[in-house]
Amino acid sequence: MRAKITYFVTAAVLVFYFVLVGSRGFLLIEHGTLLTVTFGVAVLILPVIGVWFLWKNTQFVARANALAAELDAEGGLPVDELVRTPSGRVDRDSADAVFARRREETEDAPDDWRCWFRLAVAYQDARDTPRARKAMQRAIALHAPGTKPSRAPGADGGAKTAGSSPSGA
User: Fold this and answer.
1) SS3 call for 135
2) How far is CA 70 from CA 99, 114, 117, 169, in A?
């Protein structure tokens, strides 16, 4: 629940910022000189990009949460079996061991969104956010009805080759 509140507060602050920046862009355009109109249009592009980025991230989070709810209903969410240091950080060897199991599971069933979801969680536990996001995008694409993601190089969500781990060890 705390994560949702943080997300909504951050989104609200961003929207406020976009409105503020957008209003400054309109003020520059209203000034009417070539220079201020040019800057005004340039300033208006920033909120448009920001709103698009916020929308795409919100869609991603909503889809990932829907997958988590479905997997939870099936009893298939990964169990937190990670060893932690006294400070609460995940032990790297523990994360590597879980990652190796998740990677093997995904290699055995590459078209199962559930495996990709669990692999994304393993990447996140190993603090490899870019690969976690790609694996989650793959899970979302596999779950979408009537879609089949491409098998192009690099379309595997960043799953590493045998013998490698997220920590690079």
Assistant:
1) helix
2) 22, 10, 11, 33
89-95 contacts, C-beta under 8 A, 24 or more apart: 90/125, 90/126, 90/127, 92/126, 92/167, 92/169, 95/122, 95/125, 95/126, 95/166, 95/167
pLDDT digits (tens, 9 = 90+) for 97-108: 888 889 999 999
Q: How far apart are the C-alpha atoms of 124 and 121, rounded to whole Å?
A: 5
Write the pLDDT tens digit of every residue in 11-68. Answer: 999 999 999 999 999 999 999 899 999 999 999 998 999 999 999 999 999 999 999 9
CA-based angle 102:104:109, to the nearest 5? 95
Cα maximum dimension of the chain: 63
C-alpha 155: how far from chain center: 15
Cβ atoms 136, 160 nearer than 8 A: no
